[in-house]
Amino acid sequence: MDDLKPLAVFAEVVAAGSMSAAARRLGMSPSAVSQTIRALEQHGGVTLLHRSTRKLALTEAGERYYPHCQRLLEAARAAAQSLQQARDAPTGELRVSAPVGFAIHIAPALAPLLAEAPRLRLLVDDAMIDLIDARIDVAIRIGRLADSSWVARRLCDFDMILCASPDYLARMGTPATPQQLPAHQWLAFGREAPAAGLQDGFAAPGNPVLAAAGKGLGKGALATSQPATMPLEMRAGSGERQRVHVQARIASNNQLSLQQMCEHGLGIARLGHADAAAALARGALVRVLPQWRFASLPVWAVTPRRDEAEAAKVRGAVDYLKRYFAALPATAAGESV
Fold first, then answer.
1. Rounded CA gap, 185 and 175, in Å?
2. 306 contacts: CB under 8 Å, gap ≥ 6
3. How many CA atoms lie within 13 A of 64 on its CB side?
4. Average pLDDT per run of 10 along the chain, which is 337 residues long?
5. Do strands 186-189 and 286-288 pair parallel, antiparallel, or not at all (unpaired)?
6. Residues with Cβ < 8 Å from 137, sequence gap 6 or more?
7. 3-class SS of residue 119
8. Closest to 163 in 3D by CA, of 62, 86, 274
9. Rg (Cα) of the chain, in Å, rounded?
10. Element (H or E) spanning 36, and its range?
């Protein structure tokens, strides 16, 4: 396609009524505008404008040509305006990818942004999809990140704690030391139990892992016919460190499902303190070995790029996520990397 700028210059000259006025609007010199119109006429082989010392007038060919150039100019202005709106105001569809259990945080974190931007639509998808193909704007990821060309911004760090239901502890007893933990029933997040043949929370082919759908364990739950070994590394306030291995009979790739099973007395689970806070407050869960701590789990907002042209909806989403997690108990603020 030929350069479209001369067409826009011609439309601006007609709209402005003179080459000097068009030059001011376009930020060009009058001579440059005149040369552009002359080159356009030479290229088309017709005269578009009658020039005199007092005014410009369209030729018959120019009258037929002008409406097309005018629509081109209007389309260019509309395109520029749409880019400015995307940059300056949250509009359109905000596509967020996050683990399903993270919905309890996504809703309150982004509610203020949606209230401020009524034209913004929110789509949340928890599938581990290709972020580029799905046109994801912000992906929430937890834990260690794989190398990527995307930009990761650390939203916070989740404190991890051991929890059990009062009913479970009444039946099985409350562990007093890390050495007593292996004697208990354990619930594991999928990736915590590699020995059970779980790959990111899903059963690996040829491994004795039984799907438990419809058996009361919850969506995404897996019951293992052979206990899965899960290492626990803990540190006391005094600096003492302990490492024990526990056997997880139930594993889930859904953190929310894991917590529900824990609340129903099926065993001890390592949960995010922020996730379990409400259950702890209402007495559905109890902390186990509260004097021992685990390594925190980083929470990331991953975006395609970070530069001056980043869309307002993405900037707003990341800002509101940061504010939400900064105010959330049992988390520590993170930094961009």
1. 12
2. 151, 153, 336
3. 4
4. 76 87 89 90 87 79 87 78 60 82 85 86 74 83 78 90 97 96 91 44 31 37 59 91 92 87 96 92 96 91 72 88 85 50
5. unpaired
6. 94, 95, 96, 303, 304, 311, 313, 314, 317
7. coil
8. 274
9. 31
10. helix 30-44
Q: What is the DSSP letter of 142?
A: E
CA–CA separation, 18 vs 24, rounded Å?
10
CA distance linking residue 101 with residue 81, whole number of Å: 38
For residue 235, what are the β-bridge partners?
241, 293
Question: Are the CB atoms for 211 and 200 separated by under 8 Å?
Answer: no
The predicted pLDDT at position 219 comes to: 43
Mapped onto helix, strand or coil, the DSSP state of residue 88 is: helix
Q: What SS3 string covers 246-258?
A: EEEEEEECCHHHH
**Coil, strand or helix at 293:** strand
What is the distance between the alpha carbons of residues 157 and 300, in angstroms, rounded to a whole number? 9
What are the DSSP calls for 126-165, one per residue? -S---TTTTT-SEEEEESSPPP-SSEEEEEEEE-EEEEE-
Please give the helix or strand (H or E) that residue 335 lies within, else none. none
Kindly state the tokens that stand for 41. Answer: 């006429």
Which DSSP state fits 146? P
Rounded to two decimals, the pTM is 0.62
75-78, long-range: CB < 8 A, 24+ apart: 76/4, 76/8
- Interhelix angle for 312-327 vs 60-88, to 10°? 10
Q: Could you tell me the two tokens for 100?
A: 């399903």
- Whole-angstrom CA distances from 312 to 60, 89, 117, 276, 319 are 46, 5, 11, 33, 10
